[in-house]
Amino acid sequence: MAEQGHRQGERAWDPLVRLTHWTIALAIVLNGFLVDGDALTHIWIGYTAAGLLALRLLWGLIGPENARFSSFPISLSAASRHIAGLTRGEHKEHRSHNPLGALMVYALWAMLLLVSVTGVMLESEPFPEHEGEYSQHDEDDDEDQGAEIIEELHEVSANLLLLLAALHVGGVVLESRLSGRNLVRPMIFGDKS
Amino acid sequence: MNDTATTRRIKTDKRRASALAVVLVVQALASVFFIADVGRDLRWGGLNPHSVLEAVVALALVLGTTFGALQMRQILNRIKQAETAMSIASGALFDLIEARFQEWELTPAEAEVALFTLKGLDIADIAQARGAAQGTVRAQMTKVYAKANVSGRGQLTSLFIEDLLATSDGGGSREVP
Lengths: 193, 177
Description:
Radius of gyration of chain B: 29 Å
Helix content of chain B: over 70%
Shape of chain A: elongated
Number of domains of chain B: 2
CATH architecture of chain A: Up-down Bundle
Number of helices of chain B: 6
Radius of gyration of chain A: 20 Å
Largest interface: A-B, 31 and 36 residues
Order of helices and strands of chain B: HHHHHH
Oligomer: heterodimer
Largest sheet of chain A: none
Distance between the termini of chain B: 33 Å
Order of helices and strands of chain A: HHHHHH
Structural class of chain A: mainly alpha
Structural class of chain B: mainly alpha
Strand content of chain B: under 5%
Number of strands of chain B: 0
CATH topology of chain A: Fumarate Reductase Cytochrome B subunit
Distance between the termini of chain A: 16 Å
């Protein structure tokens, strides 16, 4: 028979998961590498990423089963079992994120949240009329000490976010190689129909 | 391949879900910008009719996004249910066909010809698909009909429909008027 119903066990991401995934990825690449940190565009992209994250988190509460937090709980023991399985060449099918991937997902979200919050705090004026208006930090301001710490935090967490993103890409490539399953495809096309 | 009503409905639902995903993203972004704006207004302007109205709009946007997301989940669930039902149905039919073919002791070649016949291909199509002469295919079909003890294609097909109707008794979700 040409088609048989073998799609049950296969992983399939819904349109909202895919859309938020790639738009957040784009926002991180743009703000991390391409757009100057002092540019107004940087702020807009940052708010956009925060909005996308908020939507994805909402989806984690009320979305379909495999998009929900309950489908990929934080579990160190499950993650270490997963690694052990990988080294033995065992491949278990996961409807949602695998236990190791789940840890990465939460780490990425937490870091993005930290970057967003510190970014908003840095920017007391969300919609400055003119570029540069917001970056006029007077050196001898009382609040300057706090602002500097937050700026530092923003930069450090942003760099950590980029590092995590790189690890995430590496993990996906490695897992795809080891398991012989293309993990990227369902994130682009959803399921195989 | 021809679309059945169910596959058409699944396709429509999938398009709807994709469109809704885009709308939700736009709504979520609008919510964030509105909330940020309300925050700014409250900080600089304090509580006034303008900022209160803006806060209400922001709240409405968040609620709208939430309900949109709930609606989207319903559509996704509907797609999943329809797909599951279809794969169960096609799986059941496939099992039934295989069981019958074994029972009739069809050779692999005869089984393939019989399957093509059930799918509605005519002798010329089957001959072409199998790279065989039409005479060979005709002979194989005659063998199949003889083994199945039926007079022709129509009876062969109706055997399976009969079986399906019989097995779906009670288990299926038939609507009773």
